[in-house]
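Could you join me in thinking about how sequence relates to backbone shape in a protein? Label the sequence line and the structure token line clearly, so we can match residues to local backbone shapes. Once you have written the record down, we can walk along the chain together.
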Amino acid sequence: MDLGIFPRVVGAKKFESKKMNDRPLLDIRNLKTYFFLPEGVIKAVDNVSFHVGNREIVGLVGESGCGKSVTALSILGLIQSPPGQIVSGEILFQGQDLCKMSPEQLRKIRGNRIAMIFQEPMISLNPLYSIGDQIVEVYTEHYGLSRQEARKKAKEMLEKVQIPSPARRIYEYPHQLSGGMRQRAMIAMALACKPAMILADEPTTALDVTIQAQILELMVELQKLMGTSILLITHNLGAVAEYAKRVIVMYLGRVVEEAPVIPIFESPLHPYTVGLLNSIPKLGSKAIGGKKRLEEIPGMVPGLNDLPEGCYFHPRCSKGREICKRKEPKLFENQPGHRVACWAVREGW
């Protein structure tokens, strides 16, 4: 695959020193993103810390409403204010704190150095503009190319993401494309500036299984070619097992476990992670075609405006004890590279 379609940024800073390559590309430290509503304060992201290394794919998993998407939007400075606000914390990208940047500085990074693939392309793409025009805007905005030059680059980018007949598709509108082709167009837009980091927020949710696999394979192929890091936000634990290097598990705005992909699947520590993995159908099990039901996590996810004291998971946990109801467990490293926030693991119950 020819990377000649990506224009060179004149005067762009090069991050090639050993010192900069050794540190994480993205380093989130104690991030808190709250929403101040009439009914109370919603702690959507509550003291979250994790990092993504250079050329690394990291999976961010958890049930709906656990704060995954809000974390991604916080990175890009896309939290609507009011009512949302980054209350505290740092979001270090290539050593610079995005939280301290002005809106103008963030605009230069957003879509250029950090790109996002949204969950539903039919909603994310503008229905009033052709696919080509929306990719052209990326090149004209960030590189100052003429529309003629940008259109040529946009056509070549559609070829790279394997959209058939790109010379014709470039003039079509989102409603004229299938779900798979819309998602490919979103990937083309995200990769147009050859970003250092991609935030992929449920990139295959609305697609059938076959197209999901094609889209994920395409993303990983381009990621390896371009050296891009990916934060893969998903419910699809199978995709995480296949493509991610590390996994971060979130529950109600907090990180409850983080580990390399093999330990997290072979020996999960947090009861919530165990519950997520046990709820996956396994080939050959009686739960597929048999009478045995899949295991489920008991109880319901509480509302973010009615959170329990102590460990947020304790009302649904079979290992919960009195301390779990009173005191929040902190993340600690149980094994090298394997962090967990659980009193049962810490105390060895």
Summary: Residues 1-20 have pLDDT under 50 and may be disordered. The two ends are 53 Å apart (CA to CA). The first strand starts at residue 26 and ends at 37. Residues 254-347 form one domain.
